[in-house]
Amino acid sequence: MRGVVVHAPRDLRIEEIADVQPGPGEVGVRISTGGICGSDLHYFNHGGTESIRLREPMILGHEIAGTVAAVGADVSDIAAGARVAINPSQPCGHCENCRAGLRNHCSNMRFMGSAMRFPHVQGGFREMLCVGRDQIFPVADGVSLGEAAVAEPLAVCLHAIRRAGPLDGRRVLVTGCGPIGILTIMAVRNAGAAEIVATDVHASALALAHKLGADHVLNVAEEPEGLAGLVRQGGAFHVHFEASGSASVLRGALPHLRPRGILVQLGLGGDVPLPVNLVVTREVDLRGSFRFDEEFADAVALINSRRIDVRPLLSAVFPLERALEAFELANDKSKATKVQISFDRDAE
After folding, report:
1. CA 75 to chain CA mean position, Å
2. What's the CATH number for 157-288?
3. pLDDT lower than 70: segments of the chain
4. Are residues 175 and 242 in contact, defined by beta-carbon separation less than 8 angstroms?
5. Are 192 and 167 a contacting pair, CB within 8 Å?
6. Residue range 63-116, pLDDT digits in tens
7. Tell me: the pLDDT tens digits for 66-80?
8. How many Cα neighbours within 13 Å face the side chain of 79?
9. HSE (CB half, 13 Å, CA atoms) of 264?
């Protein structure tokens, strides 16, 4: 079978990889669709981040969905032909963090397409994959596998909302309108926020944010002081979801949080100098948000019911043979939100 393998920055190859068969408690899934994530782009563009680097070739991808092709021993509650979303997270269940209910912080985590461990955990951008039975979730009739592949980033956003606490009646700021920012807006709206303001530097991203749930959008490149005006009109924010990973965005938005406001950081970036006096005097609550756990099942349920309809995010689908083109488009935030790769042979 074939897979999408990154060897070094800008060195992406489609390679033949070994066939796999499900073992006891596993299912073999023929992958249909995989979405390109920001972390995939970090590996493609830079070979990783400052602290996480490629040390060997790695199959990319963790936003995946497909069709069950075979089941291993001890699996009797799902059959070949079932359409499923795949949770790429594999916590050990035994370490101190897992026992404490912090499975997303598992000390022995195996997360698909991640270079945090060595040997690296190979990803899901391949034609066939074997996973544990507890990693697959049925996809509803009428819902595409492209939609189902968005369950992973949506789960990230649902975890961030859980970190923030109740949002009913809250005024919320979302900075950064890439896929995570847009999905956060949709999830915040679903959670009952009273008002949502979104910022970005791309007009197309802001237009989509407004269409999918933001009450007000602001291009901070064109109106760098625009947030202050919105605060004068409607008041400061109860909660800020920061999805851009930009130090300047974070610093610029902090003054617009209410006393005891909550800042949830989703976007990954470099070290950021914080205005500590402001954090102290306003008693700002800074909360990190990393991956997800049980929220994956919630994400699949929301997509299956279309209470969160992810279809407007899907910008383009490329066949496997054109994976490099897919990555190049995904790099251009002014032209695409969520770019996916099809692993179906007839898509070529």
Report:
1. 29
2. 3.40.50.720
3. 346-348
4. yes
5. yes
6. 999 999 999 999 999 999 999 999 999 999 999 999 999 999 999 999 999 999
7. 999 999 999 999 999
8. 0
9. 28
**Alpha-carbon distances, residue 330 vs 35, 314, 317 (angstroms):** 10, 11, 11
d(CA 35, CA 150): 7
CATH number of 2-150+310-347: 3.90.180.10
CA 119 to chain centre: 23
Q: Read off the pTM.
A: 0.95
Say what the pLDDT of residue 248 is: 86
Q: How far apart are CA 200 and CA 291, in angstroms?
A: 22
253 in Cβ contact with 242 (< 8 Å) = yes
- How is the chain split into domains, by residue range? 2-150+310-347, 157-288
- In single-letter form, the type of residue at position 265 comes to Q
User: Closest by alpha carbon to 251, among 242, 238, 261?
Assistant: 242
* Alpha carbons 53 and 248: distance in angstroms, whole number: 25
DSSP string, 108-143: T-EETTB-SSSS-B--S-BSEEEEEGGGEEEPPTT-
Q: Which residue has the tokens 């899901």?
A: 124
Q: How many CA atoms lie within 13 A of 130 on its CB side?
A: 15
**Radius of gyration from C-alpha coordinates of the chain:** 20
* Interstrand relation of 216-219 and 195-200 (parallel, antiparallel or unpaired): parallel
Instruction: Please tell me the predicted confidence (pLDDT) of residue 346.
Output: 65
Closest CA to 139 of 90, 88, 67: 67
Q: What pLDDT shows up at residue 270?
A: 72
